[in-house]
Amino acid sequence: MAGPHFDLLACGNGDPSGVEVALSVVSENPAVIMARIGGDEERRFPGVDLFDCLLSLREALEKKGLLLCCQGARRNVSPSGMTRQMSNGRLAYCLRPEVRASDEDLVDVFAPADCADVASIAEQKAEIRRIFRTSFG
Known about the structure:
The protein has about 140 residues and is an alpha+beta fold.
């Protein structure tokens, strides 16, 4: 039984129109997503949870010079241990310096995002570390 489906874009490589990425949640337990990149290449991305699957897809796209335009790739979005456990990695917090995250800050990591708001995995990790240092000393 197929799970939710998302039509997303991957931006980069100087192409302003982006590359279409059709993403489907194949299974939540075990966690597996399927992505069709650019209409022809289809791959499975397994992981310990759905956020881990998303990271694997993002790594594959980054090797092609592309960034996936989804909420889970925004530079200030990160799941907590509890949200990863309770949503199997499907929900994450949109973090802001010196502001305590609440349920209103939760986003679906597969929901579309503006390409101007996304970052590489390394840039995202650096931003999350910066936010935590600013917020918690």
